[in-house]
Automatic annotation (TrEMBL):
Residues 446-585 form the Cation/H(+) antiporter central domain. Signal peptide: none annotated. The chain crosses the membrane at residues 29-48, 60-76, 96-113, 125-147, 159-181, 193-215, 227-251, 263-288, 342-367, 374-394, 406-433. Keywords: Antiport, Ion transport, Membrane, Potassium, Potassium transport, Transmembrane, Transmembrane helix, Transport. This is Cation/H(+) antiporter 18. GO terms for cellular component: endomembrane system; membrane. It is a multi-pass membrane protein. It is found in: Membrane. It comes from the Eukaryota. One of its GO terms (molecular function) is antiporter activity. It comes from Sesamum calycinum. Residues 589-740 form the Cation/H(+) antiporter C-terminal domain.
Length: 764
């Protein structure tokens, strides 16, 4: 009977299981299965990102490769694995979650595009953008004829031509922003031009993609495609008139330095989903609605930053990797078989690279851009990435790209991307240290360049990079009040208005591995006298110090080694409490310990500068070795007929003592000690001060006795003594190193200690 031959569809998956004890397999239920899928995807992509880190590849490369490996090209060849972890019944849930995450990601991409910047785009950048689109688009159309005649027979010609043209001409704006920031090219002439051209390219590509989607509809009528396209433009026009006033009203109600009201964030997220629903109903794609909404959100202010902060981690950490797996499950490299298919792969890669690079170079040269910069622009504009995958997936879902063509295009996107290649400080203590360091307080007498260091990590969005990185990727020092403010910068600017210190705040965005270069280069350009760095540990409630950022220690060591000026490391134990102390209320006791050497002389000089402040008293303590312990050779030298030789320390102290006699806020004392134990006991008597100022690598016989294996060699022997649990004090410590063109001896060796090397940091 006919009814007996009817095949039964598998039942839909239930959400949750009753547990293994009731003989339910969790992998047969939607929720536990999607949890396993997410964990597997995140684990694999993070491992691949770690392995690709030496090649300095963006994480998108690891995610694309991870998606391909999990699909039928590699692990998916084992059908038991594929049926257990990625059964066909689960793919609807997986694709839904992936596209939901992609919806919010496209909102962030739109948030990174500044319409004002597009209007300010010069003719040169606009010409380069058009050249970078035109030639590869034409080559993509030409290649599509060859593909339709070989491996893509039967596909609809119009949509296929447009999809191939867009796929070969698109530039991944977010990936390009990250690469430029890592290479410190973000606001060089080349970087600015590349970003402007990429933004124009991005908008043009989305318009062309909307056209391709409209043409690829299943209605089969040109009138239907026209209606889809016109309704899409109508939606954009409506959003342009309605959304900006609302977003601006919200932005005005979100002042900097205060948390953004949750209702505004929630309303925006709902609006993103609603916009996606409208464009999906029109027949374009839900992603377009989210993208348009992101473009219209004001880029400046706390509201945009709060949106990025709330959305980015969840989207980029969990949902986006799912989209790559969804793409990977559709990518079967095994379909590329035979000389013809592999030849077409090489042709597509060559066409994609040469079209983009050559087109950009030719137009750049016509615009009188030097050849070297034109070549750099060509490679930068060739950046592909997630946006490319979105185009390809839409084409695959619409039936425009078959399995073999899809696999070839995914490998092309992977190849072209492959070849292109915040550390908060303890603000109150730093501000109180500035107040203490201003000397006699003449207006403008002390100028502070306050640098807020932010790590350029995988989660750093392009909006942060574009709006806060300046001047060849190096910090841009604000001369006025309209700086790129965040809570850190606002604190420094507020202090400037309340004090007699001139402050120039900035935000520097760098990878940890090159953060010291930003610090040292900025210090050299501004000819600063001293760099103050935060220690990599903070004080717990019980008084012990625990590591806050282990990688900050690496930065400090590199700054100490390469600095163009003197350096201080501040161990914060709450100098002045948790708030700024006004000048009239400052009442500090500073203790400077002097043993001898370059660093001790610098530390004592800094202490004398602080003592010029009316609210600060300085105890200058010099440690002298008991004369009974000094060898006969020294006595003979003193009694030599030529007279005693005056050391740099003695000459410095002679001038310092003369200053002490004229300044009642400085107390100078010499303490005679015989051994290390007596030295420690003597230092303990001054543990009730507010701040210790010491040299990093003091010199002399006493120090040699103290210089044993220490926890943090970069702080030197006295610094390690003052931070040890055995030394009971609430005083902060400033460890000072005097500038020398080349560190030698113990000063250099202490920075090469094995306990924290660059390789160890990279493995963290």
């Amino acid at each position: 009977m006919a009814s007996n031959a009817t095949a039964k569809c598998p039942p839909p998956m239930k959400a949750t299981s009753n547990g293994v004890f009731q003989e339910d397999d969790p992998l047969h239920f939607a929720l536990p299965l999607v949890i396993v899928q997410i964990c597997l995807v995140v684990f694999l992509t993070r491992v691949l990102a770690y392995l690709l880190r030496p090649l300095r590849q963006p994480r998108v490369i690891a995610e694309i490769i991870g998606g391909v490996l999990l699909g039928p090209s590699a692990l998916g060849r084992n059908h038991k694995y594929l049926d257990a972890i990625f059964p066909p019944r689960s793919l609807t849930v997986l694709d839904t979650l992936a596209n939901l995450g992609l919806l919010f990601f496209l909102f962030l991409v739109g948030l990174e595009l500044d319409p004002k910047g597009l209007r300010r785009t010069g003719k040169k950048a606009l010409s380069i953008a058009l050249g970078g689109i035109g030639l590869p688009f034409a080559l993509g159309v030409g290649t599509s004829f060859l593909l339709r005649a070989t491996i893509s027979k039967g596909v609809s010609q119009g949509p296929f031509l447009v999809f191939m043209g867009v796929a070969l001409s698109i530039t991944a704006f977010p990936v390009l922003a990250r690469i430029l920031a890592e290479l410190k090219l973000l606001t060089t002439d080349v970087g600015r031009m590349a970003m402007s051209a990429a933004a124009v390219n991005d908008v043009a590509a989305w318009i062309l993609l909307a056209l391709a989607i409209a043409l690829s509809g299943t209605g089969g009528s040109a009138i239907v495609s026209l209606w889809v396209f016109l309704c899409g433009f109508g939606f954009i026009a409506l959003c342009i008139f309605v959304c900006p006033p609302i977003f601006k009203w919200i932005a005005r109600r979100c002042p900097r330095g205060e948390p953004v009201d949750e209702i505004y964030i929630c309303a925006t997220l709902v609006a993103i989903l609603a916009a996606g629903f409208v464009t999906d109903t029109i027949g374009i794609h839900a992603l377009f609605g989210a993208f348009v909404l992101g473009v219209l959100v004001p880029k400046e202010g706390a509201f945009a930053e709060a949106l990025v902060e709330k959305v980015e981690d969840l989207v980029s950490g969990l949902f986006l990797p799912l989209y790559f797996v969804s793409s990977g499950l559709k990518t079967n490299v095994a379909t590329i078989q035979g000389a013809q298919s592999w030849g077409l792969l090489v042709l597509v890669i060559f066409t994609a690279c040469s079209g983009k690079i050559v087109g950009t170079i030719l137009v750049s040269l016509c615009c009188k851009v030097p050849f070297k910069e034109a070549l750099t622009l060509g490679f930068l504009m060739n950046t592909k990435g997630l946006v490319e995958l979105i185009v390809l997936n839409i084409g695959k879902d619409r039936g425009v790209l078959n399995d073999q063509t899809f696999a070839i295009m995914v490998l092309m996107a992977l190849f072209t991307t492959f070849i292109t290649t915040p550390v908060h400080t303890h603000i109150p203590t730093l501000i109180n240290l500035m107040e203490a360091s201003r000397g006699r307080g003449k207006r403008g007498g002390l100028r502070v360049y306050a640098m807020h260091l932010m790590e350029l990590s995988e989660r750093s969005s392009a909006i942060l990079m574009v709006h806060k990185a300046r001047n060849n990727g190096l910090p841009f020092w604000s001369k006025g009040q309209n700086s790129d403010a965040n809570q850190i910068v606002v604190a420094f600017e507020a202090f400037q208005h309340l004090s007699q210190v001139s402050i120039r705040p900035t935000t520097a965005i760098s990878p940890i591995s090159s953060m010291h270069e930003d610090i040292c280069t900025s210090a050299d350009r501004k000819r600063v006298a001293m760099i103050i760095l935060p220690y990599h540990k903070h004080q717990r409630l019980d008084g012990h110090l625990e590591t806050t950022r282990a990688d900050l220690r690496y930065v400090n060591r590199r700054v100490l080694e390469h600095s163009p000026c003197s350096v201080g490391i501040l161990i914060d134990r709450g100098l002045g409490g948790k708030s700024h102390i006004s000048a009239s209320n400052v009442d500090y006791t500073v203790t400077a310990l002097f043993f001898g050497g370059h660093d001790d002389r610098e530390a004592l000089s800094y202490g004398a500068l602080m003592a010029e402040h009316t609210g600060i008293n300085l105890n200058a303590i010099r440690f002298v070795v008991d004369a009974k312990l000094v060898g006969e050779s020294v006595q003979l030298e003193i009694n030599d007929q030529h007279g005693p030789e005056v050391t740099p320390d003695e000459e410095f102290l002679a001038e310092f003592k003369q200053k002490v006699s004229q300044d009642g806020s400085i107390k100078y004392e010499e303490i005679v000690v015989s051994n290390a134990a007596e030295t420690v006991d003597a230092i303990n008597k001054y543990n009730r001060c507010n701040l210790f100022v010491i040299g990093r690598m003091p010199e002399g016989q006493l120090v040699a006795a103290l210089n044993k294996k220490t926890e943090c060699p970069e702080l030197g022997p006295i610094g390690n003594l003052l931070i040890s649990p055995e030394f009971k004090t609430t005083a902060s410590v400033l460890v000072v190193q005097q500038y020398r063109s080349q560190l030698t001896g113990d000063s250099l060796a202490s920075l090469k200690d094995d306990c924290t090397t660059e390789e160890e940091y990279d493995s963290q």
